[in-house]
Specification:
alpha+beta, 2 domains, 3-stranded antiparallel sheet, two-stranded parallel ribbon
Length: 232
């Protein structure tokens, strides 16, 4: 067995599988097992890719899951994947011993390395990865007091194992309080109630809430705008 791993989406996850498998001509089988995501259905989508290929704009033909698009993989690389790799569908199988037996059975077939044409060999190289335009990090964030929706103070209640978010009006008067365990849920609550009006403020709060959630789970000390520290 050359590679074992999980795939969660029917787009970027499958792109990585196609790129990695076509980079190694000795990989001839792809065994699907385990639980299927009811939303993305990556297993069904991989089977559809092997059977049908892609249509316009990289959409996988016959895929049933959400957003089954491999936009950053060339049609030539998809063709190389389909020619090289046989997809074995055992979705729903969770027993390790049964999966190991399937691996042994495939190994016994041992078709040997894939002998591709020159065109397929070129497609298997990573040169056709999506070309990202580099931009530099950094910039200037407006002071939080300038957000007309107010400002937010974040603390961690270690005794109750909760993140505490207190929202103040721009005139410094207390307005709202949220408590919870999930940084994402707390940020979504602030956005739902329209308590954040600037993108830079929302990004700042997302980073701070993620730090607070990490501190909560790892037993670290959280102070807003400060690095995480060990609890004393």
């Amino acid at each position: 067995m050359a590679i074992a791993g999980r795939v969660y989406t029917a787009n970027l996850g499958i792109e990585r599988i196609v790129v990695n498998l076509t980079a190694n001509p000795r990989i001839r089988f792809l065994l699907l097992a385990g639980r299927e995501s009811p939303i993305f259905q990556p297993g069904q989508t991989l089977g559809a890719l092997a059977a049908n290929g892609v249509g316009p704009e990289g959409r996988i033909i016959g895929a049933a899951g959400s957003q089954p698009v491999v936009a950053s993989v060339s049609a030539e690389r998809v063709a190389a994947f389909r020619a090289q790799v046989e997809v074995i569908d055992r979705r729903g199988e969770l027993e390790p011993s049964v999966i190991a037996g399937e691996v042994r059975a495939l190994l016994a077939r041992a078709p040997g390395p894939f002998s591709a044409t020159a065109a397929l060999e070129r497609a298997a190289r990573p040169a056709d990865e999506a070309a990202f335009v580099p931009i530099r990090p950094g910039g200037r964030r407006q002071p939080l007091v300038y957000d007309p929706a107010g400002f937010v103070v974040i603390t961690v209640d270690a005794a109750r194992r909760e993140i505490v978010v207190r929202h103040y009006r721009a005139n410094y008067r207390p307005a709202h309080e949220l408590r919870g365990h999930s940084a994402e849920a707390l940020l979504l609550g602030l956005l739902r109630e329209q308590l954040v009006s600037q993108c830079s403020h929302a990004g700042y709060l997302g980073a701070e809430l993620a730090k607070a959630e990490a501190a909560l789970h790892l037993g670290l000390r959280y102070e807003q705008d400060q690095p995480l520290r060990r609890a004393t």
